[in-house]
Amino acid sequence: MGALLRIGGWLAMVMGWAGAATAAEPAAVERGRYLVETILACGNCHTPKDADGRPVASRALSGGGLSFDLPPFAGTASNITPDVETGIGAWTDDEIKRAITLGERPRHGRLAEQPLGLPMWVAFYKALTPGDLDAVVAYLRSVPAVRNEIPPPVYRKPVVRERYPDGERAYTERDLRDPVQRGRYLVTIGHCMECHTPNDKGVTLYEQRFGAGGRPYLPAMVKGFASAWPGAVSRNITSHPDAGLGRWTDGEIKRAISRGVGRDGRTLQPPMGFAWYAGLSDADLDAIVAWLRTVPPLP
Ligand code: HEC
Ligand code: HEC
User: Fold this and answer.
1) Which residue's C-alpha comes closest to atom 8 of ligand 2?
2) How would you write the pLDDT of the chain (299 residues) with one tens digit per residue?
3) What's the CA gap between 247 and 242, in Å, rounded?
4) 257 CB within 6 A, ligand 2
5) Helix 282-292 vs helix 250-259: angle between axes, to the nearest 10 degrees?
6) Contact 135, 32 (CB under 8 A)
7) Secondary structure of 16-73 in the HEC alphabet?
8) Which CATH number fits domain 175-299: 1.10.287, 3.30.70, 1.10.1060, 1.10.760?
């Protein structure tokens, strides 16, 4: 990735695009890289994958990683590299932030003012601290521009976004200093509970079944994983001793998240972004585990 970043920077100089990338603080770009390439796993949807389901690094974030066929939305994750025509190179920082946290498209360009389709999980990204949101934008501006035209999606129903209880406000740097709050923050921006909470007729049961698992991910709904992907059903990650993670050791939970290995040693299946979570720091994995331990047990 370091090499990719360096090439990106070099190309930016040679070709003269993305002046903003050279202006951004290196620390912000680095923090943005860490977030986007680990807990946010933006590339799980936005980076194309090969036939074995591995992300294609040279085309990172250029769109087409996953395509969805859901009741409200059929379409493909967009090109979010700085390419001016097929990506978000013509968007201002503020426009990119509004897309990520509010699901709004700018008043110009492709699909102007059309709200972003449902699979773009903006209700969770609202939690990003102002500094982290700046960092994500700085990193997006620093990646190489890749020309890749994504066909416009079909919006079958108006976009309705559910609220996520822990994602209603931006967190602060102060929140992040407490390990449990930091874990809550990471789980929120990683939208772990969106997948790990069952859904009944389009309503996610955060009040009744928070973290209890049971949500199906089927090849008919999502395209882009390995051709042999069998689909998967999310698991109970509450602190319940039998149904959930109550009796797992910290090491077992960290291994499941960052290496995709189940407690019994089996290989866990996508859509969970294990390849991205592999880059999480140990301190952040510990924070995630510390917060998971506080999730009320559900059978
Ligand atoms: C679960 C899959 C998924 C994840 C994860 C995801 N996105 Fe998206 N994103 C989408 C889809 C699908 C669209 C296209 C929606 C549409 O066309 O209405 C989209 C659209 C966008 C757009 C609008 C681009 C355009 O030209 O319309 C931006 C910007 C964006 N995503 C940024 C991000 C960032 C940054 C992250 C990580 C924080 C991220 N996305 C994570 C699925 C995802
Ligand atoms: C896009 C949906 C999705 C997201 C996001 C997601 N998961 Fe998962 N997760 C799953 C699915 C589906 C499985 C089951 C995989 C299987 O059985 O092969 C799973 C499995 C797990 C397991 C193993 C549980 C067991 O009983 O084997 C743990 C632990 C876990 N997830 C925690 C997390 C955490 C923590 C996050 C956020 C950092 C997260 N997940 C994000 C869908 C997701």
Assistant:
1) 272
2) 444 445 444 444 444 444 444 567 899 999 999 999 999 999 999 999 999 999 999 999 999 999 999 999 999 999 999 999 999 999 999 999 999 999 999 999 999 999 999 999 999 999 999 999 999 999 999 999 999 999 999 999 999 899 999 999 999 999 999 999 999 999 999 999 999 999 998 899 999 999 999 999 999 999 999 999 999 999 999 999 999 999 999 999 999 999 999 999 999 999 999 999 999 999 999 999 999 999 999 99
3) 7
4) yes
5) 120
6) yes
7) CCCHHHHHCCHHHHHHHHHHHHCCCCHHHHHCCECCCCCECHHHCCCCCCCEEECCCE
8) 1.10.760
CB atoms within 10 A of CB 226: 14
User: What is the Rg, in whole angstroms, of the alpha carbon atoms belonging to the chain?
Assistant: 19
- Contact (CB, 8 A) for 72 and 64: no
Q: Do the beta carbons of residue 260 and residue 53 sit within 8 Å?
A: no
The DSSP bridge partners found for residue 44 are none
Task: Give the start-to-end residue ranges of the domains of the chain.
Answer: 27-155, 175-299
Amino acid at residue number 119: P
Q: How far is the CA of 89 from the centre of ligand 2 (A)?
A: 33
DSSP state, 10?
H
Q: How far is the CA of 115 from the centre of ligand 2 (A)?
A: 28
pTM score: 0.93
Q: Would you say 140 and 132 are in contact if contact means Cβ atoms under 8 Å apart? A: no
- In angstroms, the CA 54 to CA 44 distance is 10
**Is-contact 275 253, C-beta < 8 A?**
no
Residues 61, 46 contacting (CB under 8 angstroms): yes
> What is the number of residues in the chain?
299
Which ligand lies nearest the alpha carbon of 234? 2
